[in-house]
Write a structure and sequence with these properties.
Blueprint: H1 3-9, E1 25-28, E2 44-47, H2 49-53, H3 58-87, H4 91-137, H5 140-153, H6 161-170, H7 177-213, H8 217-238, H9 245-262, H10 269-276, H11 278-283, H12 286-309, H13 322-338
Antiparallel strand pairs: 1-2
Helix pairs in contact: 3-4, 4-5, 5-7, 6-7, 7-8, 7-12, 7-13, 8-12, 9-12, 12-13
């Protein structure tokens, strides 16, 4: 038997990628036969299709079928509802039809707003990627492109009118890519960074105060969640993101991933006592201490959100320090305790 005869009878298998330690692999040994160059035929390695099929459970089939039935039921109900509306010529039918049109228009606007928010977030992300590439490779052309995108991002921001004018006046005199980004950071992002620090400090103080005087835990949880989401949206809007609901969820996920990686959530009462001193800790009650912890965590979330939403990495400017926000919160709590 020649190799050509064997290849003609062997069923052709499609190429596949697999790991060498895959338990579903099967190795079949072929009978030895001679090939024209004198080498022996290598064994055939393939993946067991029978075991792959076992991955599909009856439960997944059940939920898939139920999901299909529910979708069909919803579609039939909507179809009958629309037919009934079009079949009526009285004011009820016309009113319902008008409400349906308003609802469809509102849904379309919500979708457009979400898409626009995601595109703005992607735009700021691209600027930051370009800036990181400049810092790694000193690419002047990429720096010019990133600076132009940054200027376009804040083109309609009235508070940055003079900053844009100064930047355009001096950008042609700088030939180094990193220095060009430093100029953009200094002129455009400097005022925004100061405003972001104020937003974070005010939000942390509100959380600390409300949780300290709140009579119920459910109110604490609700207000802390609301204030932190509001903080994320304000910071993203400040730096040009203006996210919708989906974009806000993505930012929240990125922030908590950032905190998990950096260990930013590891903030306990013992650490706060070491930082503010036992003398002040003895003055405040347990409720005030809880407010201090919640305010400090809000500040930490704000710092992480600032780092994520900022269209440029920190190059010359110093990133905000958690200790500075904690000091402001402690001053507020100290005044409350003395009062």
């Amino acid at each position: 038997m020649t190799s050509g005869d064997h290849d003609s009878n062997e069923p052709q298998r499609r190429p596949a990628v697999f790991a060498t330690d895959d338990p579903n692999l099967r190795i079949t040994s072929l009978p030895d036969f001679e090939i024209e160059d004198g080498e022996s035929q290598a064994p055939t390695i393939y993946r067991s299709q029978k075991q792959v099929r076992r991955r599909y459970s009856w439960g997944s089939l059940l939920f898939t079928a139920l999901g299909g039935l529910l979708s069909l039921a919803a579609g039939l109900w909507l179809n009958q509802f629309v037919q009934v509306l079009f079949g009526r010529d009285d004011w009820i039918g016309w009113t319902a039809l008008a409400l349906l049109c308003v609802a469809a228009f509102a849904a379309a606007m919500i979708c457009a707003n979400e898409i626009s928010g995601l595109m703005r977030m992607k735009r700021t992300h691209r600027i930051r990627e370009s800036a990181n590439r400049v810092l790694r490779h000193e690419d002047h052309r990429t720096a010019v492109s990133a600076l132009a995108a940054l200027l376009s991002l804040y083109e309609k921001r009235k508070s940055l009118h003079w900053a844009r004018a100064r930047l355009r006046e001096h950008e042609g005199d700088i030939r180094d890519g990193k220095e060009l980004l430093i100029l953009g950071e200094r002129e455009l992002l400097g005022p925004l960074d100061r405003e972001a620090r104020t937003i974070i400090a005010d939000s942390a103080k509100r959380v600390s105060l409300v949780t300290a005087i709140s009579p119920a835990t459910i109110i604490d949880v609700g207000f802390v969640g609301f204030e932190n989401l509001r903080l994320l949206r304000r910071l993203a809007t400040l730096y040009g993101g203006r996210p919708g609901t989906i974009g806000l969820i993505r930012i929240a996920r990125m922030v908590f991933t950032h905190l998990a990686v950096t260990g930013g959530m590891a903030l306990s009462s013992d650490l706060i006592q070491q930082m503010i001193g036992h003398k002040l800790t003895a003055k405040i009650s347990a409720r005030l201490g809880e407010g201090l912890v919640n305010g400090a965590l809000t500040a930490r979330i704000g710092i992480a959100a600032l780092d994520i939403c900022r269209p440029l990495p920190f190059i010359e400017a110093q990133p905000p320090r958690f200790r500075d926000f904690l000091t402001e919160i402690v001053k507020t709590k100290s005044g409350d305790a003395d009062g």
